[in-house]
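Fill in residues.
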């Protein structure tokens, strides 16, 4: 899973499915995590036209299929498992190659589909927090390892 997490952060763009304007929700916290690291991120939610994070207004798209550059985008998923499975199918069809499923966002069917269908699929019960791979907890280390791998190749 560490290899998948490093691969996830090799993308040019990122999107958060299940993004929220509600600060206590993980959909907001994950979006804010990308924002605070100055990563190019797009919120995906059918419920709002924009989401503000630290005075920065992000326009949203309502589905994965509306992303500008899906083949260059890694997808963080913060939705209920039955929605996640639909999102995974949409992501595969759109050409997304890397997904990160937050704890609680997947069931066995979704996890197996993601592992089979994507170049990199992050999810499961490991991770540093012991409750699953969470970008809020594991993301910085995965990014650092991915950057170190890229520097070695240069």
């Amino acid at each position: 899973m560490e290899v998948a997490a490093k691969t996830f952060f090799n993308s040019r763009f990122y999107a958060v499915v299940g993004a929220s304007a509600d600060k206590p929700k993980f959909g907001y916290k994950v979006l804010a995590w990308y924002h605070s690291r100055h990563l190019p991120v797009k919120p995906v939610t059918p419920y709002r036209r924009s989401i503000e994070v630290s005075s920065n207004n992000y326009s949203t798209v309502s589905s994965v299929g509306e992303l500008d550059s899906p083949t260059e985008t890694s997808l963080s998923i913060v939705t209920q498992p039955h929605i996640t499975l639909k999102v995974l199918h949409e992501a595969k069809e759109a050409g997304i190659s890397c997904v990160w499923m937050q704890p609680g966002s997947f069931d066995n069917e979704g996890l197996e589909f993601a592992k089979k269908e994507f170049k990199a699929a992050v999810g499961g019960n490991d991770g540093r927090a012991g409750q699953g791979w969470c970008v809020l907890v594991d993301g910085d280390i995965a990014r650092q390892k991915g950057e170190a791998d890229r520097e070695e190749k240069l």
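Helices lie at 2-8, 26-36, 81-94, 108-117, 135-153.
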